[in-house]
């Protein structure tokens, strides 16, 4: 998926934007349109106030534990779930849920477009039913699973699919789950904080807040991941997942930073609005320029090129123009579905967006795409 041998790095703090939207790759200053930093918060500066406030007062072990409890309570309240568990990374969250809660007595009904952090599903002891990215095939797989006497059936889906940027139809998925007595497990990493009326995620967007059983997500990769769900499930996950049990805890400063982020998002959703405004602006103008995109309502805009070599060349030429994106192609997507993925952030300014659109248009004409 990442053909370019790009080595991205940051200049000293005084030379970079607060949200690190400007990177230096191969010695060239570029605009970063390949980041899950949707809210413009994934940057060390977010934690600096917390760190400075503790220079003369290092946190005690009890204080750190208290803050973990506070954070998990705030996550639960924010998502309107019963309980939450903070963990270090994506595999700790997604793999931990699948490997710890489900066994050979259970069935996992799995969307073919799910994020690669669900890769541990292939190693899991449960039974797998992979469905094509549509409701018709989901129901077909649920029917197959219902022919056997499984302890649990669980539908596993991304809230926003990271390759095509579409939002899962959780309303209909939850309807099917109820019909076939299945659980619903959502990875909402590309939605938490800005998708939905108040930024709670795709379960809020689809108006199924009370119907989703498990959510995994993050407020930005540097800030760790979390699992939210029913209290009984979270209690089991505190003691079972090896990735969780044998990983280091988040630093106390990071925990404090996420608490600050949740407090901010609970009071002010201006960053969430800015992300979606930027996505809409880019989506509308890149279409006007003549590009073919996958329609969606998320902060991910896939620009379709349909050829692997062309996607690689297009991304490389954009880099020369100062725009950093990556190509996607087989086996990440089916053959003939290659393109480049653009991720928008609240940290992007109108000038950033216009530069990207102009660069896309220039390279698109050079390669006879538009």
What spatial form do the alpha-carbon principal axes imply?
A: globular
- Protein structure class: alpha/beta
Helix content: 25-40%
How many separate helices? 12
Unreliable spans are 1-19, 53-58
Largest β-sheet summary:
7 strands, mixed
- N- to C-terminal distance: 23 Å
Radius of gyration: 21 Å
Which H/E pattern describes the elements?
Answer: EEEHHEHEEHEHEHEEHHHHEEHEEEH
Taking all residues together, what is the mean pLDDT?
A: 86
Strand arrangement, major sheet: 4-10-9-8-7-5-6
Report strand %: 15-25%
What is the number of strand segments?
Answer: 15
Written overview of the protein:
With 370 residues, the chain is α/β, with parallel strands linked by helices. The protein is built from 12 helices and 15 strands. A 7-stranded mixed sheet has the order 4-10-9-8-7-5-6, sandwiched between helices. Strand 7, helix 5 and strand 8 form a beta-alpha-beta unit. The longest helix has 19 residues, at 61-79.
Write a concise synopsis of the structure shown:
With 370 residues, the chain is of the alpha/beta class. The chain has helices spanning 45-52, 61-79, 90-101, 135-146, 170-179, 202-205, 231-237, 242-245, 252-267, 270-288, 308-320, 350-366; strands at residues 8-9, 22-25, 28-32, 83-87, 107-111, 127-131, 153-158, 183-187, 214-218, 225-229, 292-293, 300-304, 323-324, 326-328, 339-343.
């Amino acid at each position: 998926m990442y053909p370019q041998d790009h080595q991205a790095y940051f200049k000293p703090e005084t030379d970079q934007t607060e949200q690190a939207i400007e990177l230096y790759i191969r010695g060239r200053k570029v605009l970063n349109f390949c980041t899950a930093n949707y809210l413009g918060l994934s940057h060390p500066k977010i934690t600096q106030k917390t760190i400075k406030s503790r220079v003369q007062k290092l946190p005690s072990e009890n204080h750190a534990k208290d803050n973990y409890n506070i954070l998990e309570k705030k996550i639960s309240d924010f998502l309107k779930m019963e309980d939450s568990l903070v963990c270090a990374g994506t595999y700790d969250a997604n793999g931990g849920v699948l490997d710890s809660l489900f066994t050979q007595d259970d069935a996992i009904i799995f969307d073919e477009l799910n994020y690669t952090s669900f890769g541990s599903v292939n190693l899991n002891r449960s039974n797998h039913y992979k469905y094509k990215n549509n409701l018709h095939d989901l129901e077909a797989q649920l029917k197959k699973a219902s022919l056997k006497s499984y302890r649990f059936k669980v539908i596993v889906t991304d809230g926003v699919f990271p390759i095509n940027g579409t939002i899962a139809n959780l309303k209909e998925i939850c309807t099917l789950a109820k019909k076939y007595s299945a659980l619903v497990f959502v990875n909402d990493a590309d939605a938490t904080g800005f998708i939905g009326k108040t930024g709670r995620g795709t379960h809020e967007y689809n108006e199924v807040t009370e119907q989703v059983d498990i959510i995994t997500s993050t407020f930005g990769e540097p800030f760790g991941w979390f699992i939210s769900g029913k209290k009984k499930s979270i209690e089991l996950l505190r003691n079972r997942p090896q990735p969780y049990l044998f990983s280091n805890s988040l630093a106390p400063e990071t925990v404090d930073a996420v608490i600050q982020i949740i407090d901010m998002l609970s009071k002010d959703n201006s960053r969430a609005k800015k992300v979606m405004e930027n996505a809409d602006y880019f989506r509308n103008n890149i279409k006007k320029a003549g590009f073919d995109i996958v329609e969606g309502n998320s902060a991910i805009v896939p620009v379709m090129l349909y050829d692997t070599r062309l996607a690689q060349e297009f991304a490389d030429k954009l880099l020369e123009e100062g725009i950093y994106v990556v190509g996607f192609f087989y086996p990440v997507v089916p053959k003939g579905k290659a393109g480049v993925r653009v991720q928008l952030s609240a940290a992007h300014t109108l000038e950033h967006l216009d530069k990207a659109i102009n660069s896309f248009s220039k390279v698109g004409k050079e390669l006879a795409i538009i």
